[in-house]
Amino acid sequence: MIVGFGLVCACDDGPSAAEAERQRQETLLLAFVDRFCDAVAACDCPSSAFAAGCVGTESDLWRARLRAAEERDLVFDGECVDAIAEQAEAAGCETAPSGASHPCRDYCAVFHGDRELGDTCRAFDELVSNCEQGLVCSQGRCAEPCTVLSGAPLGARCRDPETGFALDDCADGLWCSPGVGRCVAPPEPGSPCPDAGCGPDSRCHWETNTCQPLPGLGESCLDSQCADDLDCVYDDFGYEATCREPAGLGESCNSVSCGEDLYCDELAVCRGPAALGESCRYVPCVTELVCDFQLGDTCREPPGVGQLCISGECADEAACDFTDGVGTCVAAAPDGEACMGHLECASEYCPRGFCEPRPGLGDDCSELFVCAEGLSCDGSTCRAATTAGPAICVYAGW
């Protein structure tokens, strides 16, 4: 358990109503910190920004939030505290992509006011503002949570313009323009084509120089790709092309691609990734296995320390050492030891011939665009990541 925030009542007649309410809020927040840090400890996040001194860090953060809310006379929502704790405990330890599962879709503010969508606002952070419950204060305006918390905000750098290297995902309703390398709002259909481009679901019509929606299911796609992950499929003569849905599990992939997480096998049939002992000649193995191309193209468990490498791969916390001319799995090198590649290091970071910790919050990352877990490189500096959630070790939104 953790210590309290140090409240002391000097009243002979007991605490006032305001003091009692503050103590109630303190109790709930302290309980949240315990639950949250227990989840972090259970996930064993050694390189996470949360891991070092979780209890102290979280206590200080919630102390500051409580103080800011009192100064702004905001409303406390205890049910929201429980909901966030449940999200954290249910998130699990593996990194999950942003999208439909992102926590912004179940967002609530622990301290909130009554400002409505689009109103001006003041905030301490994403959980404390004078916006009404369900909204978040962003750039001085109350906004829908997923337009802010699901990725980088409007105008943020999302791609390095010189290298084309992706830096971060953009929030809902925005897209990363390859032309300017920043998160921008797609233009309305029918508007002139801007330098930043028409957006991921539009095209610049060559005759009118206006942005037009991509063709949908059953529509002609001779002059562009299709919308909504549809495939542009030509007829047998190659003269007509129509937008079609990708093939599903067990369906033919002769003329169309397979759906998400499916692969076209040697019989031109869509199937899932190969399991232990199955062939991986035409489809990849499931994530936790490796394909042994020397032994019948078969999915196998990754080898551990002392075993021969499989296709240059080893189990977690091990690296393939080729100095013996064969390739043997050895323990990953700690920080400070010599290395010739990132995978040789326990930190998976070998920038200058020696294993080093990955750059932390506020550190320079312009050399390799690499940061520690829970952080993302904005092209020059490591900052808190908002799009890597909801895994407990990486999500910075709690």
Descriptive notes:
With 398 residues, this protein is α+β, with helices and mostly antiparallel strands. Among the domains are: 17-116, no CATH class; 305-356, no CATH class. The chain contains 3 helices and 20 strands. It has helices at 17-43, 54-72, 78-90; strands at residues 75-76, 111-112, 123-125, 128-129, 136-138, 141-143, 175-176, 183-184, 202-204, 211-213, 231-234, 241-244, 263-264, 270-271, 290-292, 298-300, 318-321, 328-331, 375-377, 382-384. The strands form 10 sheets. A two-stranded antiparallel sheet has the order 1-2. Strands 3-4 form a two-stranded antiparallel ribbon. Strand 9 and strand 10 (211-213) form a beta hairpin. Helix 1 (17-43) runs antiparallel to helix 2 (54-72) and helix 1 runs parallel beside helix 3 (78-90). The chain is globular and about 85 Å long. 33% of the residues are buried. The model is unreliable at 1-11 and 386-390 (pLDDT under 50).
Enumerate the spans where pLDDT stays under 50 for 5 or more consecutive residues. Answer: 1-11, 386-390
Can you count the beta strands? 20
Helical amount: 10-25%
What string gives the helices and strands in order? HHEHEEEEEEEEEEEEEEEEEEE
Largest sheet: 2 strands, antiparallel
Task: Supply the key terms.
398 residues, alpha+beta, two-stranded antiparallel ribbon, 20 strands, 15% helix, disordered N terminus
